[in-house]
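Narrative of activities, Objective 1.

The group set out to show that a structural description can be obtained from nothing but a protein's sequence at a throughput compatible with the screening campaign. Below is one input-output pair from the validation batch, recorded exactly as produced.
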Amino acid sequence: MDQTRLDNIEALYDEGRYEQALTETALILKKEPEHLKAAFIHAQCLWMLHRHEEALSQTRTLIAREPENPLLHWLCGDIQADLGRTEQAISCLERAAELDAYFYFYPLRLSQERFKQLLAMRTIGSARGPFRGFRKDFSEKAEVALYEAQRAASLRHDLAAPHIQCGKLLALTVRPQEAEQAFVQAIACDNRSAEAHAAYADFLMRQGDPEAAGDSLDAALRLEPDRQDMLELRRLIDQGEQDPGVLRDYWRTQLLHASLAPDPSSQELRRQIGLLMQIGDDPSRKFEQYLQQESDDVAIRMVYVNMLFERKDYDQAAKQLEQARKEEPNNPEILSLDERLNKLGFRQKQLAPLLRRSLGLNRKAKKD
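Output recorded for this entry:
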């Protein structure tokens, strides 16, 4: 058939003129029912016009004719994804990736669909294991999705999209340092990518840094002024400035998910300590976890000592101070606080636990 006519139909599709493209492909198929390219565009037009079942039926017919064509399996997967049939979509996309192992887009789309599945698991609460950490099936799905995203990034290291996907998965599995590197790499690949700036803004906000998030948010909105997720994030930040309780509730939700990480790094624990202190929740348990890993970090230990001292938990403050003195015996801050503890009278120390109980300070730290 005339290639120019087919090129014109593709141009109509690219311009979003799906009804016209559908009419033109129907005319071709009336004369040449076996014309694969026209049939493929026809199915795509049906999909874009939200005639999903018709598009799916036609795509399956094409797959029966050409079962080794990865493009057809991708189209079938995307239509299934639009219908909310995640498992069927993943199955189709897996087949596309198997048939063409060197096209970055297939493992990327597959990873994106698995990510949606993981978010659904987190929403319904099935990410949480029976005791501590993520459920085994959640972790396994996340690792597969990350592998696919990294595969896409290795095939097209110059594109932002695979790095964004890696960052989202690393953030979801509480690996923030690696996640941040992936988002920064995405922006380095394409500084004009609104998606890259938006993903980084969302990540920074979840990490407890609204100021930095605002900078990336602004960059995303300069590129796409009507981007809804960033407009919602802007509203959240503005509401938080008027009512700090809004941000406290938001960050408590993020901390609840972060607490599922079975073996948080010391950097992640430091982040959680800072966020808990920022929102006014008890970080004692996180301090203890952190100091088990980083026993020689006197600066963090002294933050903990001062917090204990202010809460009149003198016994625990003294124990932590003793550990700090082992690391830095001549540290003036340590010596000064030790002297203050020693000056407390016996009666003061005796009354402190009673006072703490009356103020509700002896309650166990929340499982942050």
